[in-house]
Amino acid sequence: MGKGQIASRQMMKYAATRLGLAYLTAETHETNYRSRKMLSSAGFQESGRAGSELYEGVQTALIQYSKTI
Q1: With contact defined as beta carbons under 8 Å apart, do 21 and 52 qualify?
Q2: Is the distance from CB of 9 to CB of 16 less than 8 angstroms?
Q3: 29 with 49: CB under 8 angstroms?
Q4: 45-55: strand order across its sheet
Q5: Which residues of the chain have pLDDT under 50?
Q6: At what angle do helices 3-17 and 33-41 cross, to 10 degrees?
Q7: 59: Cβ contacts below 8 Å, ≥ 6 apart
Q8: What is the pTM of this model?
């Protein structure tokens, strides 16, 4: 398990136990494959595709994710 996965699991645990959150959302660019892979590995599910913005100089679609914790 990489440092990013460890950090994201720690943050999710904190969000659930200390902040009382039960639901998380995230968003990334369609072409940001590392971020998409990390979100998937953390148990996030794609929940929609809406909007776009510049990413590395190219107009890129945004993907929304969600996860119940």
Answers
A1: no
A2: no
A3: no
A4: 23-29, 58-68, 45-55
A5: none
A6: 50
A7: 52, 53
A8: 0.87
